[in-house]
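User: Show me a protein chain along with its predicted structure.
Assistant: Here is one chain, sequence first, then structure tokens.
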Amino acid sequence: MKHSINWLVVAFAATLSMSVYAHSDHGHHGHHHHHEQKISGDASTAPPPDGVTVDNCWIRLLPNRLPSAAYFVMNNSGHADAALVGAEATNFGKVMLHTHQTINGMATMVHADKVIVPVGGSFEFAPGGHHVMLEQPKATLNIGHTSPITFWFEDSSAITTDCEIRSPASLN
């Protein structure tokens, strides 16, 4: 039984890797997914967003320099909705907000220009839904270590959090 479960985890990770690889290759077929994010300023001097926190941030690290993804929960205890418009990560060359959409019965990843975190609420970035796509790793990342991501908001505020690096088989 344990051998069957291990095989299923490996098969799932391989399938996920291939689907992510296929997505990352779309640029060669006329579907360019890179969008300029509305990021301005220096995160070290940007004010923090009012009442916004990021919890449980983790990165599913895929092998062979395949695009990885970050997942987390963003909470808003501030006085207004928070509009997340981009992210940046020092260990990755290309960072984009993504979501999944079903088009003609097929689930596909699409760029998300903005994600609203409602006042008094939260927004979950989770496998199969919204995520931060991380491409072009600039450093060797190791499972169990952390990597920082800075989240930028429409009002030019920013928050940086450390995200735990997890294996390709991780689902949460």
